[in-house]
Task: inverse folding
């Protein structure tokens, strides 16, 4: 006799029960999709957003810079490095930048802050948070000249407008104090007051000149990749290609440790939650299967009496749970698909609850809740739910096999 | 409490300008601006020499404290200055050495010499309305500004010449303009106004009490008042001034900071 | 109580089915209690982290100090105010702040000097317990200091090393003095890590020539049960002319994050409860429908519909009660274990920060009344709701149909 079709018929003898159990499996799928999907979306978003804050997904920088950043640490031949990295697969962009601390003075006040010296030809709003947040004016046109782009809070404190000047003072490569004038070409507002009050954009060649750097020197090359999940792999390739003892090639996990920490913590919390819920669902499935076995004691007793082996009974129940798993997955896909579509394309807007300007791990958080799923995650979820159901079927199947024929005939 | 950029006179109080005869300064511009530059250079001449030695007192009055200190200073050329506190006793021996673009401070209490970082440049020097940055920026007035005579005649019963100095487009100065007024007779400085870019006065420097110093009349008192806090001021009073004395470069060294 | 005894006998007779059902519900309850405790623990820890490290429940400042910190924007007679607050039942400690340059060897860094009143400080924050290397400050050693983690790295110093401080004192003179590093802190938060320079209050006052007055008074409620808003209002009344704010307004970002976590938690709890509901529904439905023949027979011999309904209900309640006991005992003990020990995530997480405040990667549970009672109540409600349909069905079905029910 064909075990498969027998198992299938057994399932449908108890339509209601099978359906309810299938629905709870489907529900499990939906939960897994929601939790994993929100993680996949949120983490990728944060990582990509973090990459636009200056350091990219992968950063090539002078050795020791990550621990103690200072302007006397230079990346030599940054331009060459950039050209090489741009040819590597998986890399979406590589940008040369100089970063350092400076004092910014106007006639009214002086405040301390940091500059990001950039080449407008290499930068674009999706690679640079500050550019994305421009509210007045624009970026200076070239890598030379005396333009500067400041944050809205700094503009306020120093009483600056488009076209007004300020003087910035910093320390050059040999430790000498140097100053330069600059005129405001643009003002940005990210909403994070630390950024708006202390960060500026300067033209990279001008900064090179006053720092007495060589033509190709910079502080770092910020590399962005197409898929942040491959950051580590690409990092290794880059290190093999351009690494040397004077340089370090680091991923965002090392340069933005706060962000990395938050993501890991959230991931673990997420994971633990899913395990708990998985256990719950497994309990439900186990319950169902076990009940169905227990109430068929007589039936099994009869089957064994006419010659069916315990092993076959075991397999029978396992096949039942196999079918149940499939049905459950099918139900899961049916109920999850519209839910996923909604959350993926529209999302839930939480900006009322959290406002538009909070940051976690140093990166601005998007208040709209969305989900996305990588192929790998989908496979993981489906396999996980499937295996869980099968596993839950093991004990009931074993119990079925252990039915003692005579006693079971007596059972009611 | 800040001053960036500094008047020719304050410059000269601590550091003397070396001014080569055939400077580019003199060769630029048309006749009017040439005359302006000539006069301003003579104003500089008041405190200039190839080297100097001076003793002064500084009084600082702010909303939170009043300070009186007595200082002794030496300079050689544009680049080297050494200033030491003589009194009060608590701070005696504190010294500042400027050598080129670097400033070092010696603190006797901890017996430490530190080199000032870019972050400290805007901090006030010795608690006054001057900043450390002023000590570095002083020698660049000539390179940084284009002078022109904006008024010549009588004001308040005095014959004066008024100069307007506009910063050059590349100059790293925060001011919109500086207006300097001197007496027509002898070119003794009277009053300096510093304007921000919106042409509001941000700071005022006044010179007074002309006395015989190093052989000729010079203002001995100069007072700086910030416009946003008119009740505050920093006042420097010259007790003694010697010019063109013998000083060798070795005198302006970190070791000298610690002597005494 | 005949129904109850019949119910109990039924339950015991079908002990296998009962066991399975009860265990399933009990397990569900256990998971809910555990989850609720973990969530409470997370919120509690986050808040404690944020608050206990540095902020306290509320802080008092001179007007305008927070926007533009200044040596001269002080709370006068701070010591008196601290005493007044303590008499009113609060914990309070004053702090004095200043800015300076710290130099060690050839490196220097801008620092925020913090003069600490050692006796009172321990009643409002836990910083003194977070020394990573060396020891916390001591009144007997006034020339020793404790610095933040990153600052220690930048200056490249360890306990025993010397650091010079230079700054501008309140009287305009150049403040400078030599100190010995006594301890280096663990990660507390961005500001403290990078620029925190803790000194004995006496030493600070001498250095900065600030004989009296404070820049900040940190206040803690005697226990968490006092409502934050009303406690703040009370403190504010004791400190007229100064600005009193509680930590939610001082750090709106953290407050929002915690509120968001709250909201997320509610969503997760709801989801969990729905999952549990499905299990219970499943279990109860099956447990009735599978015995419909038996129930039909009972009807045939004269049991009224109403009695049948009650019977089914009674059986359900007995099972749920047993399940609750299982859930309570297992849930409570496991949650207590995690309350004391916590789930250690540091292998995967390391220290991190949220809105500028460091977080320890150990997840503690916190067994509150709510965490335990709500799941149990829920279990009862769901079971009662789930069994309505089958109980009615059993009550109204015609006996003949029931006997042939399939």
Result:
């Amino acid at each position: 006799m064909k075990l498969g079709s027998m198992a299938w018929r057994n399932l449908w003898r108890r339509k209601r029960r099978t359906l309810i159990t299938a629905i709870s499996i489907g529900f499990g799928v939906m939960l897994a999709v929601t939790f994993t999907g929100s993680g996949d979306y949120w983490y990728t978003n944060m990582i990509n957003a973090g990459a636009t804050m200056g350091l990219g997904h992968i950063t090539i920088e002078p050795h020791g810079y990550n621990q103690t950043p200072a302007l006397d640490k230079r990346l030599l031949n940054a331009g060459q490095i950039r050209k090489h990295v741009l040819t590597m697969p998986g890399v979406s962009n590589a940008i040369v930048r100089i970063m350092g601390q400076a004092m910014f003075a106007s006639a009214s006040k002086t405040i301390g802050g940091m500059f990001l010296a950039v080449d407008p030809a290499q930068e674009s709003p999706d690679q640079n948070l500050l550019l994305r947040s421009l509210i007045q004016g624009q970026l200076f046109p070239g890598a030379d000249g005396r333009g500067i782009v400041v944050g809205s809070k700094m503009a306020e404190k120093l009483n600056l407008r488009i076209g007004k000047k300020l003087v910035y003072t910093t320390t050059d490569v040999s430790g000498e104090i140097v100053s330069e004038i600059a005129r405001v070409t643009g003002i940005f507002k990210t909403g994070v007051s630390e950024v708006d009050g202390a960060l500026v954009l300067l033209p990279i060649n001008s900064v090179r000149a006053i720092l007495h750097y060589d033509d190709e020197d910079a502080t770092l090359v910020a590399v962005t990749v197409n898929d942040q999940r491959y950051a580590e792999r690409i990092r290794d390739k880059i290190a093999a290609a351009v690494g040397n003892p004077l340089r370090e090639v680091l991923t965002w996990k090392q340069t933005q440790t706060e962000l990395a920490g938050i993501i890991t913590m959230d991931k673990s919390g997420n994971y633990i939650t899913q395990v708990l819920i998985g256990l719950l669902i497994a309990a439900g499935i186990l319950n169902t299967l076990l009940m169905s076995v227990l109430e068929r004691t007589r039936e099994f007793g009869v089957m064994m009496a006419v010659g069916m082996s315990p092993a076959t009974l075991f397999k029978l129940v396992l096949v039942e749970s196999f079918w149940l798993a499939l049905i459950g997955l099918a139900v899961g896909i049916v109920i999850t698909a519209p839910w996923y579509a909604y959350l993926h394309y529209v999302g839930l807007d939480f900006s009322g609850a959290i406002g538009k300007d909070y940051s976690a791990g140093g990166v601005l958080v998007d208040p709209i809740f969305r989900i996305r799923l990588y192929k790998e995650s989908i496979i993981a979820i489906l396999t996980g739910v499937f295996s869980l159901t099968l596993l839950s079927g093991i004990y009931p199947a074993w119990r079925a096999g252990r039915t003692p024929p005579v006693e079971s005939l007596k059972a009611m | 409490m800040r001053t960036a950029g500094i008047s020719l006179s304050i410059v000269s109080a601590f550091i003397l300008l070396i001014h080569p005869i055939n400077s580019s300064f003199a060769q630029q511009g048309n006749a009017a601006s040439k005359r302006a530059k000539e006069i301003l250079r003579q104003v500089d001449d008041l405190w200039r020499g190839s080297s100097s030695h001076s003793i002064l007192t500084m009084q600082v009055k702010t909303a939170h404290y009043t300070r009186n200190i007595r200082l002794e200073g030496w300079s050689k050329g544009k680049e080297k200055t050494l200033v030491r506190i003589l009194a009060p006793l608590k701070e005696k021996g504190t010294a500042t050495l400027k050598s080129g673009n670097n400033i070092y401070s010696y603190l006797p209490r901890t017996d430490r010499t530190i080199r000032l970082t870019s972050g400290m440049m805007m901090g006030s020097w010795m608690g006054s309305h001057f900043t450390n940055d002023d000590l570095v920026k002083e020698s660049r007035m000539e390179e940084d500004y284009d002078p022109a005579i904006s008024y010549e005649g009588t004001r308040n019963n005095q014959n004066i010449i008024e100069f307007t100095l506009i910063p050059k487009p590349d100059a790293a100065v925060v001011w919109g303009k500086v207006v300097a007024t001197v007496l027509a007779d002898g070119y003794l400085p009277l009053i300096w106004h510093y304007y921000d870019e919106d042409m509001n006065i941000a700071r005022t420097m006044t010179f007074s009490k002309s006395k015989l110093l190093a052989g000729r009349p010079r203002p001995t008192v100069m007072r700086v008042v910030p416009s946003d806090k008119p009740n505050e001021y920093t006042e420097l009073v010259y007790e003694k001034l010697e010019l063109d004395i013998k000083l060798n470069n070795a005198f302006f060294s970190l070791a000298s900071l610690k002597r005494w | 109580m005949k129904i109850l005894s019949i119910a109990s006998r039924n339950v015991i007779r079908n002990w296998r089915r009962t066991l399975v059902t009860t265990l399933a519900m009990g397990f569900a309850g256990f998971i809910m209690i555990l989850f609720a405790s973990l969530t409470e623990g997370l919120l509690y820890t986050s808040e404690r982290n944020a608050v206990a490290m540095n902020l306290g429940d509320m802080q008092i400042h001179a007007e305008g100090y927070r926007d533009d910190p200044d040596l001269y924007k002080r709370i006068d007679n701070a010591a008196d105010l601290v005493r007044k607050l303590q008499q009113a039942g609060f914990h309070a400690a004053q702090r004095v702040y200043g800015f300076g340059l710290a130099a060690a060897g050839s490196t220097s860094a801008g620092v925020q000097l913090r003069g600490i009143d050692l006796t009172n400080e321990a009643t409002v924050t836990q910083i003194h317990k977070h020394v990573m290397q060396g020891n916390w400050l001591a009144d007997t050693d006034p020339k020793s200091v404790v610095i933040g983690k990153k600052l220690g790295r930048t200056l490249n110093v360890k306990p025993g090393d010397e650091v010079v401080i230079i700054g501008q004192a309140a009287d305009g003179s150049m403040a400078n003095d030599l100190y010995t590093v006594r301890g280096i802190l663990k990660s507390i938060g961005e500001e403290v890590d990078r620029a925190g320079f803790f000194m004995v209050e006496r030493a600070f006052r001498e250095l900065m020539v600030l004989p009296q007055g404070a820049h900040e008074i940190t206040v803690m409620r005697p226990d968490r049960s006092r409502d934050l808003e009303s406690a703040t209002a009370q403190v504010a009344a004791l400190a007229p002319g100064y600005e009193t704010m509680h930590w939610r307004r001082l750090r709106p970002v953290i407050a929002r994050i915690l509120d968001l976590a709250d909201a997320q938690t509610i969503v997760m709890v709801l989801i969990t409860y729905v999952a549990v509901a499905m299990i219970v529904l499943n279990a109860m439905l099956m447990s009735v429908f599978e015995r419909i023949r038996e129930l039909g027979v009972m009807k045939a011999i004269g049991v009224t519909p109403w009695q049948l309904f009650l019977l089914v209900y009674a059986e359900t309640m007995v099972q749920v009660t047993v399940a609750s006991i299982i859930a309570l005992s297992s849930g409570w003990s496991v949650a207590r274990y995690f309350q004391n020990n916590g789930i250690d995530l540091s292998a995967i997480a390391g220290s991190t920060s949220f809105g500028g405040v460091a977080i320890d990667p150990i997840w503690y549970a916190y067994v509150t009344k709510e965490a335990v009672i709500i799941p149990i109540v829920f279990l009862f409600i769901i079971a009662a709701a789930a069994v309505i349909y089958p109980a009615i069905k059993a009550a109204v079905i015609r006996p003949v149909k029931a006997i042939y029910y399939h």
User: Anything to note?
Assistant: The first strand of chain C starts at residue 58 and ends at 61. The CA atoms of residues 7 and 314 of chain C lie 6 Å apart. Chain C has two domains: 2-52+255-403, 58-220. Residues 58-220 of chain C form one domain.
